[in-house]
């Protein structure tokens, strides 16, 4: 049994954990829920020895333990799968698995033995991986399996998973849940951070809700409900059912014809993509990660060399135009990678907020600080960025708050076409509600929106049409009013919409 | 003698392998530093200090091995200071390394002027080419490969040792993890500072040793100009050798043969200006470092990036 007692952690200007208590029993899956920035990752990283707590104590089976480094945590049988994976991309799976391990006596690596042990474990727990594969070349879902195998290899008794489902497809998620249930049956303790209420209801035994660094409730899952958890977490009722205004879409504003793109390795990533986007319309792009959705978004923005086809914005050919020209013509973009593409970590919110239109913030060709700060302030208040002011560095923002800043910046540029990738990945329900509302408001104003999302629920709720991508092609376009999640899932796996019988 | 005669070829290759030795030794050590994430530019200065230490020890003891040991110890001590700056202070590795080289040059010049310039000590004991009966007399390979000095053979043994340590031991795995993804290494329970200290210390000891090698097996005297950028060339060799000991050995031989070629060409008396010939090995190094022959993809991802554990 692991007990966290009165854990307090301060960062400059903020109390990330404020006297938090948390108990996880053996054979229990304990979910940790809370808004973005509530302090969940901080608490988990204290338990794993990444952060030092300011006060409080950790008890393992009633014994007080001191955890000052991950090495301490590992020695105590605590393992963690981090929100951003902790793998060395150039190492093989086996090398990553035994990294840091003191097994056997000698100083020599025995990669063969490690590989056979990994094979055993992966069979036992249904976590298929090739021990000799180079980790960086594996899809994220498989990399996560490697992370879990690492913990099993060390025979961890306490497993911490920080938002493990954020990067998974639906089938991968169910596979993960099966694995976790198996581990629970072996008497291990599992702590899982997630924003998805239905996952908690489905998987967890107990749930602890955090708000503003405090533990506001620890309850058994059967004694609560999704809406109640949402209320506990946000402090108000959350309404995720959206009501869309029926607006007739205007004539096409963005027209893509037979677009083809290769990646730097020469692989075709987009094959003959054609689509039309209209004002007052949200066109959803569904697909399993890596089937060309990101490449499509990047090609529209001018971040990819285009091999064939054309892009017309408002009738103008922008196939060869530079990014700045496209933006000036009314394109805006919210990339999937908020930390490395959407923002600059060491710049303040104010500086990040003007990055995409530096010209509009100048007076006599010098930056106008007052204007820049006011703009940042507007974003912070209008989009509800929490626990930050205009001077806060992007690196110090939680994922949800950073996303609000980026979306805010793009919307403030009054775009004609807004390309958004994974707008709510990793966000809490409160934040999702407000981001969805903003996107619908843009749609009502007449913006044409291309929404790339791995969340079927998001697409079904927001989109007017959903195009499904598979291996770089659009395999079908469906109407969300009549489509089901199952149907979309089939198409995402490469099955065409209507079976066409015998094809030539 | 013509450029194409066998005699020329043998002389050239023999000299090439001979000249490549010290830079290879320094490059092997630097490979450890860089694999751990530390760009130790200070090896140029350490080579010089190692050379000085070995020369001073040699004229006072007359021994062969003791000066080599002194050189290594000096390199180790200097690296301890550098590692403290790189890892504990987390200063800019490029700035510290470059300034250290200037400092080392100052120290060497001062010590040399104060103690040696006027004394003019006689010749020192040097490592001689070994002669293995029969093997050394084989055509071509005999003189080129089997008539070199002991430090060269020691260096070649270290190539094997380095490869083994980096790729077949737990230590090597941890060291490489620290240079590729220090946060992941940390999360796996590895002390990144410890790995980076060790990497820097290994590079220091090897560079010090290489300085001694230069004096005791190749030059036989000390001037504050004897290193002449060989530390930087070793840095180039690490890149050219894709951070692998085997390939570094090949790269060092390429450098050595370029250097030998310019010497031989000078002796042959070509019409090319001497300065142009002198620059050949350096030009080759710059081309190698530029990455136009590839290699950028295998650079340790966290090279020269200081790592700070979170509070
Ligand atoms: N290294 C740091 N330095 C300063 N502040 C930090 C640091 N790490 C986190 N914070 C702040 O501490 C608070 C808690 O952050 P934490 O990452 O624990 O939130 P979270 O609950 O995991 O959020 P999310 O759901 O977005 O992952 C946030 O306000 C965040 O900005
Ligand atoms: Mg978090």
UniProtKB/TrEMBL annotation, chain A:
The keyword tRNA-binding does not apply. InterPro entries: AAA+_ATPase, ABC_carbohydrate_import_ATPase, ABC_transporter-like_ATP-bd, ABC_transporter-like_CS, P-loop_NTPase. GO terms for cellular component: plasma membrane. Keywords: ATP-binding, Cell membrane, Membrane, Nucleotide-binding, Repeat, Sugar transport, Translocase, Transport. It is found in: Cell membrane. It comes from the Bacteria. Its main location: membrane. Residues 2-237, 254-496 form the ABC transporter domain. PROSITE patterns: ABC_TRANSPORTER_1, ABC_TRANSPORTER_2. The keyword Cell membrane applies. Pfam families: ABC_tran. It is a peripheral membrane protein. One of its GO terms (molecular function) is ATP hydrolysis activity. This is Simple sugar transport system ATP-binding protein. It comes from Granulicella aggregans.
From TrEMBL, chain B:
GO terms for cellular component: plasma membrane. It comes from the Bacteria. Its main location: membrane. It is found in: Cell membrane. It is a multi-pass membrane protein. Keywords: Cell membrane, Membrane, Sugar transport, Transmembrane, Transmembrane helix, Transport. It holds the Pfam family BPD_transp_2. The chain crosses the membrane at residues 36-57, 64-87, 93-112, 152-173, 197-219, 225-243. The keyword Cell division does not apply. One of its GO terms (molecular function) is transmembrane transporter activity. PANTHER family: GUANOSINE ABC TRANSPORTER PERMEASE PROTEIN NUPQ, SUGAR ABC TRANSPORTER INTEGRAL MEMBRANE PROTEIN-RELATED. This is Simple sugar transport system permease protein.
